[in-house]
Amino acid sequence: MGRELFDEISLNVIAFLEGHSAVSKVYFHEKSPASSFSLSSWERSNSPCVLPEDLKAFLTISDGLLVKWDARLHGETFALGCMGINAVSQLVEVPVNSDDDAAWVEMLLGQGELVAPADSLGSVAPAVMQEARLLREKFRAFDMDSSCSNGKVCLLFVKPSHAQVWFQDLSKRWFFIAKSFTDYFRLLVMHLGIPNWHSTFTDIGLDEGTRRWFRFMSPERLAIDLEQFHVLQQRRRAFKGEAVLPSSPTDKPMAEAETESAGGTRVDLENLEKSQSNTKSLPKKKRPQAAERQPDNWAQQRRSTAMATRGKG
């Protein structure tokens, strides 16, 4: 995938970073497409798991992704941001193991149809945990981002043909992030590769250092993450039968929070190959809604080449 196409499908994230006063340099590592042979070989080696169509479409355009950027603060320059997706050969299996039943509450939270009503948790909790133990024996996970230093971002197969994106923290606990690769891709670019951003989906949340960078780089994204963290904490407490804290006026149903958390315009990754073969038909982006928007200069700092390409469409 070339830099121009990536900037087009990522809502001009590179242009935004290059125009930000805190960023000194952006490094885009161009990747060649994955071959159909390498994709089919992966599926044969990891049968019966089948790569999701949106991830497969992405890999046929770019066999992985690596975008890094250096920050500039108080006259010093240092490496900070990183957005990565492993090549197909790096999608290696990660052990899905835990002897702590409490850690598997998250597994059930990520599967909406398995969550029992909060008012009946007291009587069915043992059965729910037994179901969790049975489920985890069938789960398989594959590392999606080797550049992640605060845990593992994994493509987790709850069924051979049904994969979601989960985060395993350094204590080996699992937390749900996204229902599809497409949703995860949007989250990845909206969080700008700021270190430790995945922690917003854990029961710990973002540390203060990460919050400071978001306040500086994307305060609107931080506001969405903090609101979602509150919603998730409420869900966790209700699921465990604990007292739920008073809801804030801005609380949203979980489905709505998940949709809003991804932010930005939905990217049709399954049609990337068609977009590359006919640059005149590159998908046109609509300006994100207020709740999803990056700072105002996000849409203004477009690269001239991308503008010219869209103008021909």
TrEMBL record:
Q: What name does the UniProt record give this protein? A: Knr4/Smi1-like domain-containing protein
Kindly give the InterPro entries that the UniProt entry links to this protein: TPGS2
Where composition is biased (Polar residues), the residues are 297-307
Where is the segment annotated Disordered? 242-313
Going by the entry's taxonomy, the superkingdom of the source organism is recorded as: Eukaryota
